[in-house]
Specification:
single chain; 2 domains; RNA-binding; BirA Bifunctional Protein, domain 2; 477 residues; 14 helices; alpha+beta; 40% helix
RNA sequence: GGACAGGUGGCGGAGCGGUUGAACGCGCCGGUCUCGAAAACCGGUAUACCCUUCGGGGUAUCGUGGGUUCGAAUCCCACCCUGUCCGCCA
């Protein structure tokens, strides 16, 4: 969430920010409620101070009188009791007044908090303005020597390509029918070498980020409490996107939510903590199953492994000091790590600078990486897709927006507690990454060569679908 | 799932319903002593928010939320969490 003091000092900055992000939120209304709340709070506190002062006078006096009462004669008793009663009745009017203020504050507070949580972080000055994802700007592309993005797959490789759906079917790598039987649309079952390849690429990515780049390997919960979802900035705005486990309806326990990214678990780790600045920056990586309802995406990317309810992702986060330069450096570093990874896998990709409209609530800046997928995009004269870039990675820079929500701080040199900065980026998400992997490593005979970096993780399988490779154990086929 | 026990400051640990933000100990910071250190001694040592004439003033916080009361760390209720034993279990 944003700093309310900053909002009061310069509301225009946040109004412009929300407008640039195309996010509807009534900032003027929040300012009005905030003002009202503070006035009420001040009035209430004044009354309470009065009450407290009175209490401190009355308390010992009553105590003393009650002591005397015990050993008093009957006529003395009446007199003492009257005196006690008189003392007790003095703050009674204050009590009602304080209660009235309390009620009023409790009435406006939920709306105040809710609005506050919905104010987006203004985009950075150097983020290009735009109206939708179409206005994102291509920063650069990379491709291996054999690949010329100007040419078709057939021109590059010498034979026409099959889409990942076709490859999956002929090579028995995925069983969609049974997955849908069990869990409904947008589910899949990886079979045989499909599962092997999925595990191999995840393990390769996890080893790469933890061994070669020193990120601390972690396992984190994928079932979390609401505070964790709010703290990481996914709630309340993204509530519809998360699967909800209503434990409270059973009469015990609290509700839980399935996380849509390992970021939630990694960032939630240090919620409400004051970190040792000597330990910063924290660099964490996890591989976790991600769950997404894909609400509002009905009819979009319905076929294949592109948009699914459950997948696995290697995620990297950095928690660093509140320093813009350092944040920016880490952002570049995390993108660089992904570029190295994709280059090892020899997957053509492009970097996209997301425009203001595509940033979402919490980001100040976001760079997407898209891999080339021959089976996507517009169709040619023969009805074959001509290929397109498809999103596989997203690197976010958030300043203290997320850590403020999480109440994650460190003590700076002057002894002040400061909110940390946070960043996150995909290292690799599968099975989506299998789409370019399968499509680009396919051979003319319909087999798929295992990318060399994945060989150590493939138990000897070098080529999927060739006679030389061990039979891919597709059950029930 | 059953039966107990318990949640207090960075940590340990007190706390008759009344100047208790909270004794005491440890830790930490500063000082005295010392050639220096240790010990000893002295002093200091929470966070958040609000107001401010920038000197300071105020409120809240003893797991969380309600309630009782003139007044709650202390009494009542609900929830959350932790520990121990039993049962079950990948």
């Amino acid at each position: 969430m944003i700093d309310l003091k900053q909002l009061r000092d310069d509301p225009q900055r946040f109004i412009d920010g929300a407008r640039a992000k195309k996010i509807e939120v009534d900032i003027h209304h929040l300012l009005r409620i905030d003002e009202e709340r503070r006035t009420l709070l001040a009035d209430q506190e004044r009354k309470r101070a009065e009450q407290k002062k009175l209490s401190k006078e009355i308390g010992p006096a009553i105590g003393k009188l009650k002591g005397q009462l015990k050993s008093a004669s009957d006529e003395e008793k009446d007199r003492l009791e009257a005196k006690i009663h008189e003392l007790e009745s003095r703050p009674i009017a204050l009590k009602a007044e304080i209660h009235a203020f309390e009620q009023k504050i409790a009435q406006i507070e939920p709306e105040w908090k809710d609005l506050w949580l919905q104010i987006p972080q203004p985009p950075d000055e150097d983020v290009p303005k735009g109206d939708s994802a179409d206005d994102n700007i291509e920063l650069r592309t990379w491709q291996p020597d054999w690949f010329d993005p100007q040419k078709s797959f057939a021109e590059n490789k010498g034979f026409p390509h099959r889409t990942h759906l076709e490859l999956i079917r002929t090579l028995n790598l995925v069983d969609f029918e049974r997955a849908v039987k069990m869990a409904g649309t947008r589910h899949y079952v990886l079979t045989g070498d499909g599962m092997r390849l999925h595990q191999a690429v995840l393990r390769f990515a996890f080893d790469f980020i933890t061994q070669e780049h020193g990120f601390t390997p972690m396992s984190v919960p994928v079932i979390v409490r609401e505070e964790c979802m709010v703290g990481t900035g996914f709630f309340p705005a993204g509530r519809d996107q998360a699967y909800h486990i209503e434990e409270s309806r059973r009469g015990t326990g609290t509700d839980l939510f399935l996380t849509g990214t390992g970021e939630v678990g990694l960032m939630g780790l240090h919620q409400d903590e004051i970190l040792d600045p000597e330990q910063l920056p924290l660099q964490y990586a996890t591989v976790s199953t991600c769950f997404r309802r894909e609400a509002g995406a009905a009819g979009k990317d319905t076929a294949g492994l592109y948009r699914i309810h459950q997948f696995d992702k290697v995620e990297q986060v950095v928690i660093c000091r509140a320093d813009e330069e350092e944040s920016r450096r880490w952002h570049q570093k995390m993108i660089d790590i992904v570029e190295q990874l994709l280059q090892k896998l020899e997957l053509p990709y492009r970097l996209l600078q997301c425009c203001t409209a595509d940033l979402g609530l919490k980001n100040a800046d976001m760079i997407d990486i898209e891999c080339w997928m021959p089976g996507r995009g517009e169709e040619d004269a023969e009805g074959r897709p001509t290929g397109a870039y498809g999103e596989t990675h997203s690197a976010s820079r958030l300043y203290d927006y997320q850590c403020r929500r999480l109440n994650m701080r460190y003590r700076d040199q002057d002894g002040r507690n400061v909110f940390c900065h946070s960043l996150n980026n995909t290292v690799l998400a599968s099975p989506r990454i299998l789409i370019p992997l399968l499509e680009l490593y396919q051979n003319e005979d319909g087999s798929v060569t295992v990318p060399p970096p994945l060989l150590p993780y493939m138990n000897g399988v070098e080529r999927i679908g060739s006679v030389a490779a061990p039979a891919s154990a597709a059950p029930g086929r």
